[in-house]
Write a structure and sequence with these properties.
Order of helices and strands: EEEEEEEEEEE
Number of strands: 11
Length: 115
């Protein structure tokens, strides 16, 4: 079994930045499909940013130009750099990794952007 531990969430003012981290308990060197999702109260979970099978990146239109997904294989960690945050970015953010025979989700980290 693989554990994904998220960190980096918090409360920021509009226009600020946060970097979310998702550390896996196993090597991600061979894993291609990883990403970040978010869920606001009363809403469906939505894709924010992902790596595809070819390690290309894909972003939701609402975050393009502001967010960036990256990875550090040596640390078994995937990151989400969030800049120019807006109140509508407020949500619980979850990392997702498809690998090791199944799909794993992080525990979620709260991001709150005040106006």
């Amino acid at each position: 079994q693989v554990q994904l531990v998220e960190s980096g969430g918090g409360l920021v003012q509009a226009g600020g930045s946060l970097r979310l981290s998702c550390a896996a308990s196993r090597s991600i060197f061979s894993i291609n499909t990883m990403g970040w999702y978010r869920q606001a109260p009363g809403k469906q979970r939505e894709l924010v940013a992902t790596f595809t099978s070819g390690r290309s990146t894909n972003y939701a239109d609402s975050v393009k130009g502001r967010f960036a997904i990256s990875r550090d294989n040596a640390k078994n960690t995937v990151y989400l750099q969030m800049n120019s945050l807006k109140p509508e970015d407020t949500a619980v953010y979850y990392c997702k990794i498809v690998g090791w025979g199944t799909t794993y989700w992080g525990q979620g980290t709260q991001v709150t952007v005040s106006s």
